[in-house]
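Researcher: Going back to the complex we discussed earlier. I've cleaned up the inputs and rechecked each line, so this should be the final set. Can you rerun the prediction on the complete assembly and write out the structure?
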Amino acid sequence: MRIILNGEPAEVNAATLAAALEELGYGEGPFATALNRDFVPAGERPETRLTEGDAIEIIAPMQGG
Amino acid sequence: MDIYDEILSSRLMLGTARYPSPEILRQAIIASGAEIVTVSLRRESAGERAGQKFWDLIRETGVKVLPNTAGCHSVREAVTTAEMALEVFGTKWIKLEVIGDADTLQPDLFGLVEATRILSEDGFQVLAYTTEDLVAADRLVEAGCRVLMPWGSPIGSARGLNNVYGLRAMRARFPELTLVVDAGIGVPSHAAQAMELGYDGVLLSSAVALAGDPVAMARAFKLSVEAGRLAYEAAPLQPRDMAEPSTPVLGRAVFA
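Model: Rerun complete. Updated structure for the full complex:
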């Protein structure tokens, strides 16, 4: 299905957020996820089902002021 | 310095952005003596894993991290970012920024109070990036905030303390609260001035990161913050309008 990943169009076969992260190549690293602008805790990713057009945000640590 | 019952010996908090290299960032953190550095969150691509490398570097230094909500212009964005920061960094501290003006990066005080209330009720420990506005400060405290971080001047402007009167009034109004001047510090004398006003600490970033020699500048700020605090504790002489002889006049020889 087509989704929006960090603002860019992407294609995934996975049905859940956890499976999509694995399919897209995100490992165990430190990152957090949001689906359609709502935070999804790591523990809820396996039960979070994706639908066509969902917007996924994956954010990780970076330098800040 | 007391940050939500965590007692820190350094009164300098350092940003981690815009350094010439990760190694210079690492050396600057050490030279500054800072025990808290600010960090942020940004989109991560699967292949790059830049976040992992940065996070490893910060953890190696052993300092505590203060995640920010930089770039958030709405309450919802700021709250969601804070929730994500808690999961990634494992700290309840959040440097809460809700930006209201694109040119000055002035905080949206109305959104800031609302986001503070939401996050405090969720158990976050909010360090609010605010102005010297006393009414907003009262509202922030009512909303659960125990660390106020008024700007010295706009972020990255290096203009120092634009409103010394306002900052002094805030210190006088909240004698028990932890107050940190955040933003606008350009040179060590600005930081010393904030400390001489009785502020508990200063938070700065670009002044060190964009200096010609960031490591030397980090040390300069360390010394200025310590000097300013020591001066405050030593009860500085108050200014006066007219001269007062510093050499005693009693017993002076008369030749006229």
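Model: Worth noting: The mean pLDDT of chain B is 95.
Researcher: Good, that matches what I expected from the previous run.
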